[in-house]
Amino acid sequence: MHPNPEASQRLAKISTHLRPPTLQMEHRSFLGQQNCRAKGGAPGFKVAILGAAGGIGQPLSMLMKMNPLVSLLHLYDVVNSPGVTADVSHMDTGAVVRGFLGQPQLENALTGMDLVIIPAGVPRKPGMTRDDLFKINAGIVTTLCEGVAKCCPNAIVNLISNPVNTTVPIAAEVFKKAGTYDPKRLLGVTTLDVVRANTFVAEVLGIDPREVNVPVVGGHAGITILPLLSQVKPSFSFTSEEISRLTDRIQNGGTEVVEAKAGAGSATLSMAFAAAKFADACMRGLSGDAGVIECAFVASEVTELPFFASKVRLGRSGLEEVCALGPLSEYERTGLEKAKKELAASIHKGVSFIRNS
Ligand SMILES: NC(=O)C1=CN([C@@H]2O[C@H](COP(=O)(O)OP(=O)(O)OC[C@H]3O[C@@H](n4cnc5c(N)ncnc54)[C@H](O)[C@@H]3O)[C@@H](O)[C@H]2O)C=CC1
Ligand SMILES: O=C([O-])CC(=O)C(=O)O
């Protein structure tokens, strides 16, 4: 017998109320409550993460739930999204969280969203290039972007799935086919290259990485990743050996993680951090903050290529300005020519994937 029968009764009531008959039921009952609050129209952005149960998706879901600019967070995956949703939804932050599982729920996951972040797709294993992921990820990105075109054609899309140099052109073609393409709203996420460049340069300079800003242009694979060390802030004059070593490490940062993980995937935590940083910048831009500058892989006229990563200004309509490359060193000019050759082939592959399908 409980020493305090009243307290014991109260406890029994609470635990009956909370006990989940099944995980699905618990998921549903809590989603019901959250839906009520979401209908209240709290100010903030409605964000969907597609691939939310994955290595990137899970920490990214957590980081987006922590972002005060997010009012509603939709977590979609083809597996395990109920568990991730239940878990993240217990965080006592403002965003309401709803989970969506499997293709039949994709449309509900996307309807009404302002920002769609896509980390769905397979990651690399040692010995693979990002291009080796094309076969599987091209189809995944196509399906998801068809959903975006149908259910939230005005949403900003942050595309993470590799190979970014090809998946972004694929997404653009899907949107063109659907008649919803707006180059201002399609952004390939290359923030991790900048995050890495800032970290590695800060190591060399012996300063806090938060004080460093390295523009990284081109694309998001090997030699297409082109750090502009001549434009580093605070300005610093590197030796040619430092430039060559730093460039090599930044270009191969992804492979460094793939090898260290030894078959267990690629960068997930640093990528979630980078994606959350970029999504935050997009939402600040949408909110009207002037002067939000990030690097991203976007439709561009900065070179003769139709897509290119460079500094962009984010604003109320998404991508507001693609910044010029600025003066390049001889080393960077040579790197740029090599990068453009590979990029042209990767972009062409994405465009033909949709046009010839
Ligand atoms: N842009 C960048 O800088 C980076 C990109 N990546 C890329 O991000 C992608 C995801 O990486 P991880 O999270 O590590 O992989 P992961 O395998 O851990 O997670 C991927 C998730 O996508 C889900 N998924 C698969 N097909 C789906 C579909 N049709 N709809 C919705 N979800 C689906 C899976 O169920 C899984 O939960 C990879 O392609 C990887 O190469 C990774 C790091 C950096
Ligand atoms: O290297 C990979 O496959 C994942 C990725 O894009 C990165 O870490 O930059």
UniProtKB/TrEMBL annotation:
- From the UniProt record, list the coiled-coil ranges: none
Q: Tell me any Pfam family this protein matches.
A: Ldh_1_N
Identify a single GO molecular function assigned to this protein.
L-malate dehydrogenase (NAD+) activity
Residue numbers binding substrate = R124, R130, N162, R196
Q: Which UniProt keywords apply?
A: Glyoxylate bypass, NAD, Oxidoreductase, Peroxisome, Tricarboxylic acid cycle
Family per record: Belongs to the LDH/MDH superfamily. MDH type 1 family.
Q: Tell me, how does this one assemble? A: Homodimer.
Q: What's the protein name? A: Malate dehydrogenase
Taxonomic source organism: Apostasia shenzhenica
